[in-house]
Amino acid sequence: MTTIELVQGDITRESVDAIVNAANSSLLGGGGVDGAIHRRGGPAILEECRKLRASQYGKGLRTGQAVATTAGDLDARWVIHTVGPVFSATEDRSALLASCYRESLRVADELGARTVAFPAISTGVYRYPLEDAARIAVDTVRAARTDVEEVRFVLFDERAYETFARQLR
Ligand code: ADP
């Protein structure tokens, strides 16, 4: 059984086995939660991301996929980087967003992580409507077959927190 917890705040302050990053396909850093993770986690994360780009991920990480690195100075063992879809009004990309949650949990299982913190993937610069993103996040985690014992959604602002809370009820 995976329990789902909700927290409002900054994901880089969480103590968990793995923190999920809403990365971009370059894996080389960006704004939003990605920028915050690299800032607080320090250069060790970027160094491992660069090595991934130089080896298996020459073209970057595809949307909906996930890969782990060290968590550097964060209070976690790993950062799991996943690339959410950019929202499109003309194409349904919900399967790609669901894949981010599923693949991140698959990587967490491979690592042996038991507690995993997720941000609201794609709801920032990638403009996914919060309501849809929250429903996909909660449904996908609820349906996942995983050994992860606790999934913690860490929502940056009150509106995101309330939207996720409504989905959980
Ligand atoms: P994306 O490109 O996937 O949309 P963003 O980082 O722009 O990623 O935004 C994803 C979500 O993360 C947004 O809801 C944003 O408010 C939130 N966010 C930004 N910084 C943090 C943080 N430090 N901790 C948790 N969530 C954050």
Description:
The protein has 169 residues and is of the alpha/beta class. The protein has one domain: Leucine Aminopeptidase, subunit E, domain 1 (3-Layer(aba) Sandwich). It has helices spanning 32-41, 43-54, 94-111, 130-143, 158-168; strands spanning 3-8, 18-23, 66-70, 78-83, 115-118, 150-155. A six-stranded mixed β-sheet has the order 1-6-5-2-4-3, sandwiched between helices. Helix 3 (94-111) packs across helix 4. The protein binds adenosine-5'-diphosphate (ADP). The site of adenosine-5'-diphosphate has 20 residues, from helix 1.
CATH C-level class is Alpha Beta
Indicate the percent of residues in helices. Answer: 25-40%
List low-pLDDT spans: none
Instruction: Classify the beta-strand content into a percent band.
Output: 15-25%
The main sheet orders its strands as 1-6-5-2-4-3
Q: Which architecture does the CATH hierarchy give at level 2? A: 3-Layer(aba) Sandwich
Structural classification: alpha/beta
Main sheet characteristics: 6 strands, mixed
Distance between the termini: 17 Å
CATH topology tier name: Leucine Aminopeptidase, subunit E, domain 1
Helix and strand sequence: EEHHEEHEHEH
InterPro entries: Macro_dom (IPR002589), Macro_dom-like (IPR043472)
Protein name: O-acetyl-ADP-ribose deacetylase
Pfam families: Macro
